[in-house]
Amino acid sequence: MYRSEASKLTGRKRSRFGEATDFDEGLYDLGNGVHAWMVPNGSWGENNSGLVVGDGGSLLLDTQWDVPCTAEMLDAMRPLTREAPIKHLVITHADGDHSWGCALVREAEVVMSAAADSESRELKPASMTLMSGVTGALARAGWGNVKKACHYLHGMTAPYDFKGAVAASATTTFQKRTTIEVGGREIHLIEAGPAHTRGDVIVHIPDTGVVFCGDIVFNGSTPVLWAGPLENWVSSLTKMLELDAETFVPGHGPICGREGVLKMKEYWEYIGRELRKYHEAGISARDAAYDIALGQEFAESEYARWDSPERIMTSAHVTYRHLEGKGGHLKPAEKVLILWKQGLLASDMPGAVPASMHRP
Ligand SMILES: [Zn+2]
Hints:
Elements: E1 8-9, E2 26-29, E3 34-38, E4 49-53, E5 58-61, H1 67-81, E6 86-90, E7 109-113, H2 114-120, H3 125-141, H4 144-157, E8 172-174, E9 177-182, E10 185-191, E11 201-205, E12 210-212, H5 230-241, E13 247-249, H6 258-280, H7 285-293, H8 296-300, H9 312-323, H10 332-347, H11 355-358
Parallel strand pairs: 5-6, 6-7, 7-8, 12-13
Antiparallel strand pairs: 1-2, 2-3, 3-4, 4-5, 9-10, 10-11, 11-12
Helix pairs in contact: 3-4, 4-10, 5-6, 6-7, 6-9, 7-9, 9-10
Zinc ion binds next to loops.
């Protein structure tokens, strides 16, 4: 993976879910004042952040999910940000894992797409704490499918502590694209959503040839379609490949080159093709997800070894909504219901990672 001698790694050998790490955790020096905070193995909340250092000011790209994880990252960045304080915080999309540590970056101007900003304001860290508590209790005391689904839902948040977490709200919003000047250098923000969420943004640093992809690229971890349509995600990947860049920092998983972006595109083309077939045959989204994820073709593919393959359950439901002309905006209760089914599918994939989510 792309990193220099100047990288500062944490030395941890286990991921937050207790898996052996596939890549090193810590701050990677990508050259020219561009740094990536990489979190193995790219599972739930194990997302990557970025720091672009200019003359007398720097830009932070995404926080971590909770305050302790964000604080650890900011500490590692301190030798860089002491001279060049964080003046901008760019949030690539509304998901809490990329934004709920924002309380620790109070002085910065917070930049988001207008769509991400309005989606972010709907999310409440307190309800995540509540969900974690309730599902934790039911995972211990429940039985049958309740136990299985709650084991999964609780497992998602188990490594995190949402005390002090705050949903991000932007001080500056934009649509389509904008340029930010950071200590004498230009940073391009390009809206790629609605795709993973309603307002995904990718960040291109033209003077270094680096793209921070947000959750438009997952590497070695299964992407999830919360908003869509799928075609929009695929076309934003095509546009990403046209940018002048060789290094791509995914939202989750290790740094990659163009091949990582292409792989993401192939995954969605495959899933989209399959789901359209099942939809035309009148098979439900739930059954389609089961059939694909537990089928022979999938088992023999690389996708079966990606982290959290069961996320196909959410992607199937959202794709079906688009095929039926309903649009991709799920209400919170609908999300929970889909995640419940996703948890049950996960328990039928005991060989998948992270093990703590797939095996009781
Ligand atoms: Zn994410």
